Structures
1.
Amino acid sequence: MSQTITLYVDGACRGNPGLGGWGAYIITEQEEHKICGGELHTTNNRMELTAAIEGILFCPKDAKLIIWTDSNYVKRGITEWIEGWKKKSWKDVKNPDLWKKLDATCQDREIEWNWIKGHAGHEGNEMADQLANQGADQIAAQENSTDPKKKAESDWLLNDPFGLEFDEDSEENQDEFEQETALSAQRDDTAQDESLNTTTHGSNINVTTTDHPQIVITPATVDAIGPRQLILDTETTGFYFNDGDRIIEVGAIEMINRKLTGSSIHIYINPEKPVGDSENVHGISDEFLKDKPKYAEISDILFEYLKGAEIIAHNATFDMNFLDMEFERVGLGKLSNVCDVTDTLVMAKNKHPGQKNSLDALVRRYEIPARDRTFHGALLDAEILADVYLAMTGGQVSFDIDALSQSLDQQNSSGKREINVDLPIILPSSEELEEHEKWMKLYADKHGSPCLFEQENT
């Protein structure tokens, strides 16, 4: 009987195009293997494909392979799109050399392809990601050792970390690449971080456990560093926060630097009034809620968990109005005074004007894996929204002026007090100015034109 081998494959790219690496973590019935490599000038998709090719080639041809990739571009390409590409003689297909090689490598093999969510704390996927970055480091070190003049280009700005440089090929808008950008957005480590919160360890939030039997707080499993973002949803007895409707469920999951840390909070709340017709939406009955705590009983713990984070919600005005009302009712003040707020509905309307932008519509548009939403649930909707948010904000860095203006309007209307602080001005030394001049010359030599700082001074 042939053996079964599990492979986790991943690619990485520092700039797109830029320095890239690939990695494959291979688990046989007897042992584990770790292989990696890289290229100086490549793209993320090419590294994803190379990781799959090299991982398969490493394995015996008679083995059954179970492959896990966090790239839907690779998974769907080899299982769905490739036959159509062949019929069209690979016309208008990007990376045809690697697709043909992958196709040939898969012939006469038994392979099961699977997609896995990237940067979600899965041990196999995280190992493949580490190997991909190791491959990029190794190829960079080799290049620097053979050509000392290139060592100066290790400067992170020269390597285009934000993917702002495009070659002609990378600007084409093929459907499969738009789908890949949306579906693999959660693995884009270079996306712009607009959060204004204080840097914290996700696992060091003051509230990680509680003895309250009705409050479920899951501690973080990923020790990430950076501003906290909480993807949040609520369920209520109705639509009108100022006319007696109350919150009956709160769910929020934590994300730091585009990685879900595993931390979450989930609470059912007795609204002290009948849920009425809203049960048809969320499926939560009066009978179910009768032994649940009142808002005043859980407010301190919930407020402590939420405060200081950037709250991300779909139609955030609805959720924040209810949360502000409930926290003010118990004397804690408005949550919006201690949190920044991002409304994904506003983002979606700016990004897709004139289209349906409900959560269900965005799930379909970005091909988020389907979940049963017969009834809305706060934690379920928060998990779905996390996928949608990562998809909408992933891919190449873009500056959405409308969304930014909307975000600033929300911040200005949140009632926060402005604090004016006179910051010290630190002037550069002569040595620092000299190094800066050298850097600008290196940039101009590499790109054939002066950098932005030099252009502004001419």
2.
Amino acid sequence: MRGEATVLHADLDAFYASVEQRDDSALRGRPIIVGGGVVVAASYEAKARGVRTAMGVQRARALCPDAIIVPPRMEAYSAASRAVFAIFHDTTPHVEGVSIDEAFLEVGGLRRLAGTPEEIAVRLRERVRAEAGLPISVGVARTKFLAKVASAVSKPDGLLLVRPDHEEAFLHPLPVERLWGVGAVTAEKLHSNGVYTVGQLAELEAATAERWLGKAAGAHLHALARLRDPRPVATTKRHGSIGSQRALGNRSYTAGELGLILTQIVDGLAKRLRDRGSSCATVVLRLRYGDFTKATRSRTLAAPTDRTEVLLGVAQQLLDAAGPDISGRGVTLIGVSLAQLTSAGRMQLELPIDWHDGARIDTALDAVRDRFGSAAVTRAALIGRDPGWSAPRLPEHE
């Protein structure tokens, strides 16, 4: 017998664009594009005209000439996210954040205190609308996968409950693209074999799906199609890396400009690292070129650190090593991840300790930014620069 539908997937609708419309009444009901060289987010009014995330702004303008383009305001989005997540945590102690604008919530066991999962979802949506001023879609189901699909189907600004006895009737008629992990390439492989719906995939033998898609991917997607997803809502998960990336659009950037963007990224990541009381041992640089190929470079330090200057120096060395490719092929995305995280309190210090290093400077700068905002103090190299450039930040991960 299947269990009760107690997992909520809460997903803010067109998050960045919704924040812009919330904060400026003149933008409400209008097609909004958030971005610089590329579309970082689009309102539903713009999406209805064919505008999609990661599309070039020039193409988006051709599809929607009356769109209003606004630069990203990451501090506003982060503040809105914190307000919404505070509501999540006030609803249940079992919250698994997926990104800046979505989370899973486990509400099983709250029936006596808060009502049924559907009733909890209704109140959650009302609170997010009233307290954060934002629309949110919620899916309620027995598993995380089904809850995520339900929230997507309910968009925009909807609520959908998938009852355990109605799971196959809900899922199997949907296109295979609704499965978690099916992108354009996988969808084409399935289509070429006559599989267009989730139900058709579920009818296959697992070995057939594995032969077409590869052992791991085939087994995973076949299990989802047959409603098998044992993953619980993970509330105590500690992530092994944090990262941030910027989409740069199609214009070419000099090595100096890329270095400044890299400085902005590492400066913010190092502060996040110290805020969580961690150090990192590995710096990873990711680049995407104009021909859509990607490159990843990494370096592991002799000892974990949370110092901005050390991390920035390593990141810059990785970027310098990619110099010939940058000038020849152009860079359309740059990202940095800090990996192999360790609790700062457990880090073994090297001797002799140099008390004239940048550790105390980092701490002082963090305190100023915490009190007066991230723009209160900046590096000399960034003075007079637009923090957004035409290189909007994409959603960060932790």
3.
Amino acid sequence: MNKFVKGFLSLLFTVSFTFSCKEIKTEKTQNKETEEQLVSKDLKWSERMALSEIHRFPDPTLLDFRDTPRWSYTNGLVLQGMAKVYEQTKNKKLYDYIYDYGNRMIEEDGSIHTYKLKNYNLDMIKSGDAIFYLYEKTKEPRFRRAMDTLHLQMEGQPITSEGGYWHKKIYPFQMWLDGVFMAEPFHAKYALEFIEDDEVKRIMDKIVLQFDLIEKYNRDSDTGLYFHGWDESREQRWASKDTGLSSNFWSRGMGWYGMALVDVLDYIPKSHPGRARIIGYLKNYAEAIVKYQDVTGTWYQVLNLPKKEGNYLEATGTSMFTYTLAKGANKGYISKTYLENADKGFEGILEQFITVEDNGVINLNKCCGVAGLGGNPYRDGSFEYYVKEIIRSNDPKGTGPFMFAAMELNK
């Protein structure tokens, strides 16, 4: 190896090492600053959770315990919570964290790092809420272009025979409760902001239709609860050959749907006939879930089988139900008496799931890590499947809704 090559490699190593050290130093500095805020201020639970998430994941692209950056709904969920907290506290650390995600994931031409439109995956719409927030703050054209791409996906999303969005292209003819939360609040907000009048009504009609179809197919008339998935084709092993429905009432599945109901109402115009129907759906939903609220204030992983061996009190669904009831009551969609259930739910979260470390960081424990239907390895939607999926702490599908709930209840 000649002297020039040796010298170049030495320089390259030195530069790489220096940048690496700077990155580590910056991350350590950020964590120290975050810890100082956590222990030095009398924080509300929402801000404490937001700062705890930053402490756990200094890089916002790695939320959800990732090794490499990925455009995902979990990032959008947590960042949307942080945006709500920032608007109340003006803690710049929160805004900088949200912006860091958009800055890293959205290229100058508006392309979205790791996103593939051709997958037609409703989950991928959710982080659009964080980008919408950043666009409102900065007016950077790249953020608008990224949202245009997500709108383009919604315009081309494959549908059932009645117009219901497939959850993903790889899950044909299937509607999941998750999907309406991932896509519809963002799409409604986008339409109001960027689409012309006649087209707005067309999009709102499509959005309301998704809720109408969930009510038509996924709701159980006996309990008022909702089955996780419906397969129009009846081809999936998890689907009943008679109804196309999955076989259980999964807590977080219903949690997604509840949050979709209260959030989409922020954008459905009062003049739209579907708005009253959605409020009616929310009233029935609230009436149903409080019947299954445990004495601790929390809810079980499989809602209607609390005494079945293996079932457990679960944090993500509980946080979602608490938020749904609190926001629904605060907005006047449902009776104010449901605030009692929401308060009981939040106190249950603190008693059953929250632990506090010496440095002020808080943990949300007993979170179902993941659950779905079909796929490989195959997920059959059985009771045993839901209770045997991984349980972990600080899953973003819980920490985000925890912030939502804490904000609504001003905890």
4.
Amino acid sequence: MNYAEVTQNARDCIGPYCKACPVCNGAACRNTMPGPGAKGTGTLAMRNYQKWQEVCINMDTICGQKTLNTETDLFGKKFAYPFFAGPVGAVKLHYGDKYTDQEYNEILLRGCAQNRIAAFTGDGTDYNVMIEATSAIEKLSGQGIPTVKPWDLDTIREKMELVKRSGAFAVAMDIDGAGLPFLQNLNPPAGSKSVEELREIVKMAEIPFILKGIMTVKGAQKALEAGVSGIVVSNHGGRVLDQCPSTAEVLPAIARAVDGQMKVFVDGGIRSGVDVFKALALGADAVLIARPFVTAVYGGGEDGVSAYVDKIGSELKDTMRMCGAFSIDEITPDMIWK
């Protein structure tokens, strides 16, 4: 099974909103919420994708032949590639009735673990989503990263206990989820967090804490002040605030400001191994990819996940060879042209 077959299969079962497009660029699903589309004008998901396409690669094949190694280290664990499956929640709402959140998470986590990468799992208004996600991670001896929504501190404390029980090697919070329409006016409440509150959440976690939803140098500096272990440069796929810049546009300045003091991930419109290479050259340590992994699960289950990982991994390896980079550490800013 290749990824083209996976996307073809997914079109029959992924629900009315997502079209399982050959290239997931946000165009066919704009303004579909529920669904995978972006908020407001619906253009930010497309901008995320397009800005990666405007970054070009500097080819250089005048170099000695060496064994190519795509492995990366993250919080004491070694992974086959510097890309991971991003968190997706409420799959029945956004992608149709084929899977529950539990079924989706279990397939995604197993598929990623089999291919030596990790998956971030989502959270939701249904408390069972986090219970089931952390249970699935526990079955894989902690090989996964649960993502907690920015609830009130008491609810976060309860969910952190589930995270600890799972043995997860890291935990994340998509703080930009405060802008999701379905989280407004809820009980328990969800919303933005102060540096002091984040510092308390970091202490609750007791494992590396990743803050997702950073789009400015100022935000990255606040995250550093709070003591987080990593950030994800992310505008939530365009789903929380219309007319932001793309993640490709803001990543370089944020990576420079962080200067290696914590891990920097990036997501938003990354759709190929070439895009992964560009993100690393612009300063990211690793990337997250979300929507295409949904297509992979719906179109082929664990085999679909393997097909997608193989596709992205092969493209990354080919790009590295053609630029004279034979390990992730050898990918440098001079290998791209903007």
